[in-house]
Each structure stands twice: as C-alpha cells, then as structure tokens.
Amino acid sequence: MIGWPVPDPQIPSAAHAVLAEAAKAASAAFRDARARYDRAQLAETSSIGADGTASMRLDLLVEGAIAEVVEAHRINLLSEEVGFVDNGSAVTLVADPVDGTANAAAGVPLSAFSGAIVLDETPVEALTCWLDTGRCWHAVAGRSPEFRTSGRRSLDGAAVSLLRPHERSADAWWRVAKRAARVRILSTTCLETMLVAEGSTDAFADANSDTHRIVDLVAAMVALPGAGGAVLDVHGRPLEIDPDLRRRWSGVAAATPELADELAATIRG
Amino acid sequence: MIGWPVPDPQIPSAAHAVLAEAAKAASAAFRDARARYDRAQLAETSSIGADGTASMRLDLLVEGAIAEVVEAHRINLLSEEVGFVDNGSAVTLVADPVDGTANAAAGVPLSAFSGAIVLDETPVEALTCWLDTGRCWHAVAGRSPEFRTSGRRSLDGAAVSLLRPHERSADAWWRVAKRAARVRILSTTCLETMLVAEGSTDAFADANSDTHRIVDLVAAMVALPGAGGAVLDVHGRPLEIDPDLRRRWSGVAAATPELADELAATIRG
C-alpha cells in the first residue's frame, strides 16, 4: 500500500464549476483508491481504453468519479478510457483523469488531474492539479494566468523535460539531450507542461515518439500562450479536439514560440 | 520568485536530535531563501565548494543553517560546500543540505535535505526529507525501517531512475534504458534512492558518469539494506566516508542485491 496522504486540491476560486468539481472528485477518488488497493491492484489492467492503451484500475476509478460530475452538469465528456460521451451539449469536459498513471500506481508522487472546458471545438479554460500535493494551475484562453514562463528563447542552455527515449526515435531524443543544459524525465506530461508554464523549466517535448493524445496537451494549449509560451506538434500537425483518442502527436511546450520552433526543428533533425 | 509554500518536515519522533534539528533548520532556511531571492539569485554561484563544483547561493544558505546546529552540538560536519569541519568529535553529521539544488533553485519541486550520523567512519542513522512536501524517511543501520523495497530481482521490466545521460558514458546509459520498463530522471539522487527504499521504483543508478559524492549516497547506504535493498558502486569501489569530497562514485541503489549487481554489470557492459 502507498501510505502517503493525498491533500485536497487548492483550486482557485475563479475556476469553472465543472473543472473545480471534477478536480475535487478526481482527488477524492485517488485518495480512496490508494486506501483500498495496493500498488499491483492499482496498476491492474482489464480492458483497453478509448486511446488504444490498457486502462489501469486507478484510471477507471478516477474517471468514473469525473463522469458523475459531467453527468450531473449534462455536458459531454472526452476522456482517456471512456472516450467521447455525447450528451448533446455544446460544452465538453476534455480530461486526463490521472496523468502519469504509472507514477501514481507505483507511488512515484508525480501525477495530475488535468481538464479543459471546450466550447464546440475550442478549449476555453483549463485546470491542472498535482494530486500528490494539491498544487493547481488555472488558465482562461486569451488571458494572462497568474504565472509566467521563463522567457527563454534558445535550446542551448535550456532545461528541458522529455518523454522517455524510445528506440524508434532515439536519435531525436539524443539531439535534444546533447544541447540542453538540464534533462529530466518526470513521466507526467500535464505536470511537466505546467512547470514550463510557471517558469520552473524551459520546455517539454515528446521527441518524435508520437505518444501524446489531445487529453495530454489541451490544458497546456490553454495555459501556455497567455503565460508567454507556445504548444505545438513537432511536425506542425494541428492540435485538434477530436473524439478519436487514437490520434497521436509529438507535443512540444516551450517558454517562447521561438524555443518551441527550435526544439521541434531539432527533433525533426 | 517561487511562490509555492515550503511545509515543515514531518520528522519521525525516533530521529536523532542532530538529524531532526538539521532537517528543520534546512527546511526553514530553504523557505527563507525562496522568500528573499528569485530563481536567478538562488542559483547564483560565487565560489567553488569542497566537492569541486560551484556552490549556489541556495546551497550556502541552507548549509549555513545546518552548520549552526552542528556547532551547537559540538560534533563534526562533512558537507558539500564547506567540506570537513573537524570539531574533534567521534561523531560527524554527513549532509547534503539541498540535494537537487538545480531543481530547487529553478522551482522544480524535487529537492531534499539528507543527513547521516557517522560514528568514527561508520554511518549509523540517516534522515532524508523532501523539502517541497515535508515527507521524511528515517533509518537506523542494522534495523528494518518502516518501509520496504519492491523486492524486484531483475532489470527486465524494472522501473529505473537514472542520472541524466552524459556523452562520456552514453552507451552505458542507453543499455539500461533499453532494458528497463520505465525510465525516469528526477535529478535528485537522495529522493530517488528513497523512492527505491519505499518500493515506489525498483532501482536508481549513475550510469558510469562518476558524478556521485559520498554525501549523495550515505543515507541510502543506511536505509536500503534494512529495507531489503542494496547500494554499491558500479565498479565495486568501496563506499567510504572520506573527508575529501572530490572522490566520486557511480552509485547504484536497488530493491535487491541481485538487481543491484545486474544493473552494475549492465552499466559496465
């Protein structure tokens, strides 16, 4: 069993009711799951999610709690395991119930709830909460949030977080690792992009492994531009809200548009 | 400025008074430094420490607070920046005041105080506290602590944390990364070894870059054996308390002695 406490999320008062309730529900379900199941049980997989990967017990439990919030508000849901739940609303909650599930199930204290309110196909507001500490980041599209990126413009000397290297894209990974002053792999895209948004790291990237789904990137797409940064795909593919979660991208989140472009070009080689 | 709060460390009541006081002093100094200085000021370097690397302002401030505790108790100190302070005692506090200083100064919430009580040349008790959350791990040599490793015996399928890759040892790094099921780089040896000790990851290694100093490894040397694991050097060099902090090792901490041996052999190639 993982004995560490799960604190309540510190949700900014300005957050949309659905985001606030979903984050609280996710945190409570996370706490309950860790009290009831050991590491192996949390990580147990019994089905394939809408994104094409196996769903862990922890994912399903937390997503179930979020789905109840969405049903009560009679909006739609687009989420990792269940896929698109169409309740005929113009509003959709796009959520990653537990980003960094492998961390969370093992006890590595780096996992997050991440959600965005999408009107038709446009993300308008986002909330990311670090489940292990309760720290939250809130942003509204088109406005400056209460945090700011580092402002760094070039890769040389930058602190870069990466997804773990894969053999199919090892060259791209090394090209970035060689030039960055610092390299980290925290294995939680949603938290790592918020560290970029608040200026604690300079950039985060999937170095061409096409691992990212839109649920991993949508909160960063809302938060980064207003904080001075940018989010894009390595190959310039548009980042779109698509009910088909099998679509993948190699996302880049960076402190400035210039750094995002340089990082993407370095990864393309 | 980094706005997140620094909570008090949750120190187990059984901890040695010097370790408890040093951890509290480190946490208070860390909180004070973050309230007074911005990221660039925290990371500013003005001198070379006893380990041969540049000392950041944050390191010096936290070490200064620990040195006061040591002076009050009239014992010796062996610490990253100041080196060995000989007060003629048989007891030495061996400390890494801020492990993961680069994380801490930037705002990446992964940094720790780590200290061990050494009698003559034998580490007898250790305390590691995650400064960003207050979580602490306490261990007494020869006893089972209140945590246990995962018990994993083989590298295939293991979750392994690594120091960032260096060009001089890239092959070794890649050999481990290819075989591990999960790879992380959290850039804080003291926290990463405690995640091994509590069973949240299976192993941690410096893949032959000879970056580790004894202050990085001493708490793990006390905590791991009683929790089922092992700590060793990739090349079998003895892990010794030596006042010369320029001595380096490539440390391996693993859930079992078998996994530690396999990891070291894989790194040697």
What would your notes on this structure say?
Two copies of one chain form a homodimer. Chain A is α+β, with helices and mostly antiparallel strands and 269 residues long. Chain A has two domains: 17-140, Fructose-1,6-Bisphosphatase, subunit A, domain 1 (Fructose-1,6-Bisphosphatase, Chain A, domain 1, 2-Layer Sandwich); 159-268, D-Maltodextrin-Binding Protein, domain 2 (3-Layer(aba) Sandwich), CATH 3.40.190. Chain A contains eight helices and 13 strands. Chain A has a six-stranded mixed β-sheet, sandwiched between helices. Chain A has a five-stranded mixed β-sheet with strand order 10-9-11-13-12, with helices on both faces. A two-stranded antiparallel sheet of chain A has the order 1-2. In chain A, β7 (122-130) and β8 (136-140) form a beta hairpin. In chain A, α1 (17-36) packs antiparallel against α3 (57-73), α5 (170-179) crosses α8 (257-268) and α6 (189-197) packs parallel to α7 (214-226). The radius of gyration of chain A is 17 Å and the shape is globular. Chains A, B: Mg(2+) binds at residues 80, 96, 99, 216. Chains A, B: Keywords: Magnesium, Metal-binding. Chains A, B: This is Myo-inositol-1(Or 4)-monophosphatase. Chains A, B: Its cofactor is Mg(2+). Chains A, B: GO terms for molecular function: inositol monophosphate 1-phosphatase activity; metal ion binding.
